[in-house]
């Protein structure tokens, strides 16, 4: 039963990811995929009554850390590009 549901949800995920790539961008599709990484172990604990092990906890922490790093790097890059744009606008006057 687990394998059947894994196959069904894998197909839904694939269709959704391709839809996001076509409608928005591949970057947004990737960020949505990264957000979903820590949700899977939490859902397994609640729906399948899976035990929370040390390996699962470490993987969730690493997934959340990766997402936060991704968002922070995007913030830093955006901030730097605004500073450069402002400097270019001031020099062109």
Automatic annotation (TrEMBL):
Record has Cell membrane as a keyword: no
GO cellular component: membrane
InterPro entries: PUP_plant (IPR030182)
Cross-referenced Pfam families: PUNUT
PANTHER family per the UniProt record, alphabetical: OS09G0467300 PROTEIN-RELATED (PTHR31376), PURINE PERMEASE 21-RELATED (PTHR31376:SF17)
Biological source species: Linum tenue
Molecular function via GO: purine nucleobase transmembrane transporter activity; purine nucleoside transmembrane transporter activity
Protein name per UniProt: Purine permease
């Amino acid at each position: 039963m687990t394998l059947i549901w894994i196959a069904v949800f894998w197909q839904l995920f694939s269709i959704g990811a391709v839809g996001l790539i076509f409608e928005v961008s591949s970057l947004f599709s990737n960020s949505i995929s990264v957000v979903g990484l820590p949700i899977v172990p939490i859902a397994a604990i609640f729906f399948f009554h899976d035990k929370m092990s040390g390996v699962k906890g470490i993987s969730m922490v690493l997934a959340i850390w990766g997402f936060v790093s991704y968002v922070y790097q995007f913030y830093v890059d955006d901030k730097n590009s605004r500073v450069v744009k402002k400097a270019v606008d001031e020099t062109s006057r």
